[in-house]
Amino acid sequence: MRHLTPIDRAVAGYCRSWRIAKATEPDVAVVNPETLEESTLGDFQFRYIDISSVSHGRVVWDSVQNIRFADSPSRARRVVRPGDTLICMVRPLLDSHTSADWIEQDSYVCSTGFAVFRSAGGLYPRFLKCLPFTEQVKRQLVAWQCGTNYPAVNERDIRMLRVPVPPPHEQAAIARILDAVDTTIERTREAVERARILDHSLLHDLLERGLGKQRSNKRPAYWTIKRVSEVAEVGSGVTLGKDVSGFKSVELPYLRVANVQDGHLDLNTVKTVRIRCDEVDRYRLEAGDVLMTEGGDLDKLGRGTLWEGQIPDCLHQNHIFRVRANRTVLDPRFFSYVVESDIAKRYFMRVAKRTTNLASTNKTQVRAFRFPVPPLSEQEQIITIVAAAKAKLNGLIQKDSVLQQLKKSLMHDLLTGKVRVDLSQGGFQVPASFFEPLPDDLLDAFEGKQ
């Protein structure tokens, strides 16, 4: 019995009735068909796609430069035409692959860190562009990659890539299904971005102009401006690594800076710490505490969110401040939204101790933070409005996640032939709900403030 190589095992999952071919077979595809010669005129201009310009199938166009050949790096050599597929040969598991979905005939060049695949007739371009993201292609790339710190696949090996070549009509049908999912994902992402903008501007508007039809461009005069120390108590967290031997102690979960994000918590990984029993009450979190990070990277400065008692007897480390509101004057949910606002971000950026790319604040500065405090009844109204906007945003984010899982499942099933497109019955049926437009009222909410 012939020993199966990693490549054999990688392609064993393809449909047996499909042709399996090397990508470089004459009727399948051509690899790196065009290269800029060193004799290229120095004034020749092109848009340069580097590996850093690509993320999970998408080109980040803001990072794509328009440069002259004379000014270009030596790796800017692969000519790209509409319909080409770019497979990243450097750290291939990062999925920095993409395709030339544009129709413009402008000059595009990509890095030699990509292998450019161009259909030679056997592969439908929109089918070919999906293949780099399949498990079968990934396993081949991993088998070939060399190096540890900078793993990469060389051009000789990638020319040996084995791909499925279904009948043309089946390739076209599969591509149409996956394109439909992509279109829905793109629409959902656009709606998410609009929702994020609305969420941010709505919060700013409410805190700067107040509520009601009689709003002006100024904050209501009857709103008071308070320091945190006047309406809440600020507590520091437990210091890690303290020797508790000789004391009665207990091991409890605690929150790190990584757990506290801007406006939400990440509780996927929660560590524990051993602490003296007589110090537990001092550091134990209570539902309604607002958590704020001390700093680190600039994006961590003063970020925070509300603790709702998700984990019993949970503590917080000393790089996280706990703000416990006096609920007779301040609703902790309202304060958690203030922490997300530009008012807080501007203050902490101004007072923080800063070094290159790092910043930190301290308990004194947190206690001195001044912010608007409406009457409790108005705080409650603002909470209701902002919470509704966030619920819509989170719903869209969840929809995007579901669509991503659907696409992943469909790609595996369709691109391996595990699920065949039954053309005699009108094609593979994707649940109609995935392609329904978003509800009108939801879309209207994200067109801007009314």
Name the CATH homologous superfamily of the largest domain.
DNA methylase specificity domains
Q: Class by helix and strand content?
A: alpha+beta
- Unreliable stretches covering 5 or more consecutive residues: 428-450
What's the architecture of the largest domain in CATH terms? Alpha-Beta Complex
- In angstroms, what separates the terminal alpha carbons? 72 Å
Provide the residue-averaged pLDDT: 89
Q: Do you know the CATH topology of the largest domain?
A: Adenine-n6-DNA-methyltransferase TaqI, Chain A, domain 2
Percent of residues in helical segments?
A: 25-40%
**Strand order of the main beta sheet, please?**
2-11-8-9
Specify the number of helices: 12
Question: Can you offer a commentary on this structure?
Answer:
This protein is of the alpha+beta class and 450 residues long. The chain has three domains: 6-165, Adenine-n6-DNA-methyltransferase TaqI, Chain A, domain 2 (Alpha-Beta Complex), CATH 3.90.220.20; 168-211 and 379-450, Helix Hairpins; 224-373, Alpha-Beta Complex (Adenine-n6-DNA-methyltransferase TaqI, Chain A, domain 2), CATH 3.90.220. Helices cover 32% and strands 21% of the residues. The protein contains twelve helices and 24 strands. The strands form eight sheets. It has a four-stranded antiparallel beta sheet with strand order 2-11-8-9, with no helix packed on it. Helix 5 (168-209) packs antiparallel against helix 11. It is elongated and about 75 Å long.
